[in-house]
User: Which sequence fits this backbone?
């Protein structure tokens, strides 16, 4: 049996996933732009709906790809004399997966989680300091500028990344170099932020801190 046509179709479907990923990245940037320019909460919420629609498409595509891959593997394993209807078999598997869908799947989508996380940080940076500023503007500015300093280099961050586990941010190159150095010594990396108890910082736990970068860039322009 030749599976070339099916492999080619699966490859095309996987390309579609990259378009969904790009769409989610754009929606995240737009939402952060909206917060930065103090737009209505309603506009920001509409971007969250867009993200959930993308997450739904991503889940459906994943199920479709998985259903076809499982069907092909099953046929290759069993080697039947008469080739079964692959489309029907895959459709059955796909519908079975879809029947187990829950809203939690969408909430756990990695890009959606990143969107929520960055949105929260952005709102904190742009809308969370109002009450502090009313008390003492100088204290508020000093506090926010302290968040700009990398705990490793002790300099203002240019490309901050945030640790998903403990929530602290570092300069990307500095933390990656630290992880690499400790890896060669076969040691774990303790979070360099003073007072943090997290003792195993991994590269896979780091995500770009777009919200913090925007605030730093904005401060530098002033």
Assistant:
């Amino acid at each position: 049996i030749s599976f070339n046509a099916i492999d080619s179709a699966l490859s095309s479907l996987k390309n579609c996933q990259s378009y969904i990923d790009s769409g989610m990245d754009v929606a995240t940037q737009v939402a952060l732009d909206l917060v930065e320019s103090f737009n209505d909460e309603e506009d920001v919420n509409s971007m969250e709906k867009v993200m959930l629609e993308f997450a739904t498409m991503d889940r459906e595509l994943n199920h479709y790809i998985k259903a076809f891959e499982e069907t092909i593997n099953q046929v290759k394993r069993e080697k039947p004399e008469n080739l079964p209807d692959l489309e029907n078999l895959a459709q059955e598997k796909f519908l079975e997966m879809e029947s187990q869908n829950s809203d939690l799947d969408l909430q756990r989508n990695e890009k959606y989680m990143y969107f929520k996380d960055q949105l929260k940080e952005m709102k904190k940076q742009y809308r969370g300091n109002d009450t502090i500023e009313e008390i003492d503007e100088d204290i508020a500015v000093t506090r926010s500028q302290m968040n700009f300093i990398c705990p490793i280099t002790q300099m203002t961050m240019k490309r901050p990344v945030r640790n998903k586990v403990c929530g602290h941010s570092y300069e990307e190159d500095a933390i990656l170099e630290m992880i690499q150095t400790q890896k060669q010594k076969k040691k774990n990396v303790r979070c360099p932020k003073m007072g943090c108890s997290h003792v195993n910082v991994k590269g896979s736990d780091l995500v770009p801190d777009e919200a913090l970068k925007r605030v730093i860039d904005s401060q530098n322009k002033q």
